[in-house]
From TrEMBL:
It comes from Natrinema zhouii. This is Enoyl-CoA hydratase/isomerase family protein. Belongs to the enoyl-CoA hydratase/isomerase family. Pfam families: ECH_1 (PF00378). CDD domains: crotonase-like. One of its GO terms (molecular function) is catalytic activity.
Length: 234
């Protein structure tokens, strides 16, 4: 269900279940977590096989929970854990959204550092229409990305939006025919600097603490790249 391929500094992780629109079972979530957690590459490119990024949770898996609230909560916690693994990865994770991103699939993309859609990509949180909602960290991350008003409208309506609207409201940062090119573009930069930038932008400490860490990180990079800086002046 999860394929892993490495090309230079980019690890490509593919959700490979196109017949089910790349819906994720418990096994698939655990395999995705391992593929992210095991990465040594500075950049991870996350994509779906075929015409969808991911439909999110496999509804057959949800139905098999048979109304058991404890098991359902455990399933939600697993999805949350995978999303945190993506968010906390030392690597920069780029989501290449090549088609439909729905529910948990959209939520996993929200945990990525960069989201790039193709012109055909679409986005939605349809769970509200059948009495559910995305519980893989979506209610936490969506307001951070969109702001509270747009997050509420988007999730409460259950509607789908296209790539242009997703770009307008900030759900994705770019539209590209080949989203992987963005991952490769990032990977061309020094890997230590890429990793530091992710940590600094993701830092949720108090402002004074963030600024102290920022200054220390800048000092470390200046020391590490002294020769590169000198070369720029020649």
């Amino acid at each position: 269900m999860i394929d892993v391929d490495t090309n230079g500094s980019v690890r490509t992780v593919t959700i490979d279940r196109p017949a089910a629109r790349n819906a994720l079972t418990i096994e698939g979530l655990e395999a995705l977590e391992a593929a992210i957690d095991d990465a040594d590459e500075p950049v991870i490119y996350l994509r779906g096989r075929g015409p969808a990024f991911s439909a999110g949770a496999d509804l057959h898996e949800v139905a098999a929970l048979e109304g058991d609230r404890d098991r359902a909560a455990d399933f939600a916690r697993l999805g949350q854990r995978v999303a945190r693994t993506i968010e906390d990865s030392p690597a920069v994770v780029v989501a290449g959204i090549n088609g439909a991103a729905r529910g948990g699939g959209l939520e996993l993309s929200l945990a990525c550092d960069v989201r790039v859609g193709t012109p055909e990509s679409t986005y939605g949180e349809p769970g509200v229409s059948f009495g559910l909602f995305g519980a893989w960290g979506g209610t936490v991350r969506l307001p951070r990305v969109l702001g509270e008003g747009d997050a509420l409208e988007f999730s409460l309506s259950g509607r789908s939006i296209d790539a242009e609207e997703a770009l307008r409201i900030g759900l994705i940062s770019r539209i590209e025919d080949d989203p992987q090119s963005v991952a490769e573009e990032i990977a061309e930069n020094p890997s230590d600097t890429v990793a530091v930038l992710k940590r600094r932008v993701r830092d949720d400490g108090e402002r004074a603490t963030q600024e102290r860490r920022e200054a220390q990180a800048f000092g470390d990079l200046v020391a590490a790249h002294a020769d590169d800086i000198d070369a720029l002046l020649e």
